[in-house]
Amino acid sequence: MDLNTVVEVCDGRDRVPWRAGDAWLGGGTYLFSEPQPHLRRLRDLSRMGWEPLRRLPDGSLEIAATCTIARLSRYGKELEAVAAPLVEQCCRAFLASFKIWNMATVGGNLCNALPAGPMISLTAALDGRCTLLAQDGSVRSVSVAEFVTGPGTKVLAEGELLRAVTLSPRALGSRTAFRQASLYGLGRSGALVIGAVDPVDASFAVTITAATVRPFRLRFPDVPGPEALRAAIGAAVEDRDWYDDIHGLPAWRRHMAFRLAEEIRAELAGDGGRFASGGAR
């Protein structure tokens, strides 16, 4: 779609003052998908020169905001980490055309802050940290679970930029389980739940996305029993937190989130119950 209100595109490296009507341009798959009448200038990030994926000296994985879904998918297939399968599972939850896969960015998916954003699901479940750059050059770090505050809303200040998301080596060493539910075979996620068992202290975390207006990541000292898990989710996620749109009613999303969380709990606890394998769509 043409953005006929945009009168200028500048290099993201240029140190020009931020002004009303500016927007960062990554892959552009959202910006050019619908009218943006408030925009006047795009600040292009394509020449920033950020390495899409790199291992830091401490073993952490840094994912640049400009890393595409296709690039992350290829990397995940080669990644030597216990949690590596989760990368492809979340990339596949994107359910996008090859054009979108090759243009859409990890940073764009997070900054759109849609409940069904699978890069939010992936990085929140692995306790990712967002590096944010302000216009004055200052840097701050927030967890992915805190970065997204609601449908389409996040903690970014005016002109602030998401630079990267970092996953620790400890998180990458976690045993994980993934479940997704949709009203349609190739539909947007109505509920996406991920469980992770810490490789150091065997603590358990369950992350609920798509079903809720923002990510919910609940932690336990070990894998809880069914009732304890259900009670914790019920206490953390209030009625108003279950998302409501054409892809699923709140009651159905709530039901699926509880069901998928129990499947994950059983799988990672090794209960061998009826939910110990497979998934839902």
UniProtKB/TrEMBL annotation:
Residues 1-172 form the FAD-binding PCMH-type domain. InterPro entries: CO_DH_flav_C_dom_sf (IPR036683), Diverse_Substr_Oxidored (IPR051312), FAD-bd_PCMH (IPR016166), FAD-bd_PCMH-like_sf (IPR036318), FAD-bd_PCMH_sub2 (IPR016169), Mopterin_DH_FAD-bd (IPR002346). Transmembrane segments: none annotated. GO terms for molecular function: FAD binding; oxidoreductase activity. Pfam families: FAD_binding_5. PROSITE patterns: FAD_PCMH. PANTHER family: XANTHINE DEHYDROGENASE FAD-BINDING SUBUNIT XDHB-RELATED (PTHR42659:SF9), XANTHINE DEHYDROGENASE SUBUNIT C-RELATED (PTHR42659). This is CO or xanthine dehydrogenase, FAD-binding subunit. It comes from Actinacidiphila alni. The lineage of its organism: Bacteria, Bacillati, Actinomycetota, Actinomycetes, Kitasatosporales.
